[in-house]
Specification:
3-stranded antiparallel β-sheet, single chain, GMP Synthetase, Chain A, domain 3
Length: 236
């Protein structure tokens, strides 16, 4: 189509910003963790003046982060969706997104979405949902609230086994040492339903493990949680 593609061999945030300004990039394909860096960077100025189109994928983006990064980019997106018959989930409720072409079969995307005002909002991946006493809890929703806290720079939520069910557990990167686990538990309690509470607790870490593409490596956190539980049990 006559365009030029610039590919970074390894992501480095300062170079990422400078490339946008110097090369006058008009299209950006990125991931939510990079959007978080942009949203939290007070030094972002004219770096994205030539940007016309941006896509964030590979992981869900909460409304808080979406609004924060939109304030940096500006908004100019138009989306068109098609509705189909036999949709069991009512608008505003969460359910798995199924796709269908000209054949009789449906394709299961594995994405949990919410349909509102003509738009599909990605909530989380089906396989990453936490099931607490029959209720579904989306880690991305809790992560969105955690990232909205001014004293939290990054966060990830996993499900851990507890008394025959799963409970949400948060790993948090704090901006300073003044924030406590009790404060975070109260912060979340005031914003979500009872079944979404962080009953698994809050653990402070130096960084959240992520893949090169920016996806949270929940498996690594689950392994860490199991190892910590075994170590705690051994001490008892």
């Amino acid at each position: 189509m006559g365009g030029t593609v610039f590919w970074m061999p390894k992501f480095k945030y300062p170079e990422f910003l400078e490339y946008h300004r110097r090369l006058k990039l008009s299209f950006c394909l990125t991931v939510p963790p990079i959007c978080l860096l942009i949203a939290n960077d007070s030094n972002v100025g004219d770096h994205f003046n030539d940007l016309k189109f941006a896509i964030a994928g590979a992981a869900p983006m909460g409304p808080e982060l979406h609004d924060a990064v939109s304030a940096k980019f500006g908004r100019g997106k138009t989306m068109v969706t098609q509705t189909y018959d036999d949709i069991d989930v009512e608008p505003g409720q969460e359910g798995e997104l199924l796709l269908k072409g000209l054949t009789q079969c449906w394709f299961s995307t594995g994405d949990i979405v919410r349909f509102e005002k003509g738009l599909f909002y990605l909530v989380d991946r089906k396989k990453e949902l936490i099931k607490y006493k029959g209720n579904q809890v989306a880690p991305a929703e809790l992560e969105g609230f955690l990232l909205s806290h001014p004293q939290i720079s990054d966060a990830a939520v996993i499900g851990v086994a507890s008394k025959g069910t799963e409970v949400p557990k948060a790993y948090v990167v704090a901006r300073d040492a003044n924030v406590s686990a009790e404060h975070i538990l109260t912060f979340i309690k005031e914003r979500v339903s009872n079944h979404k509470q962080l009953r698994g607790g809050v653990v402070f870490v130096d960084q959240i493990p992520k893949s090169p593409s920016g996806k949270i490596l929940r498996r690594v956190l689950k392994d860490k949680s199991r190892a910590d539980s075994k170590a705690k049990g051994a001490k008892l």
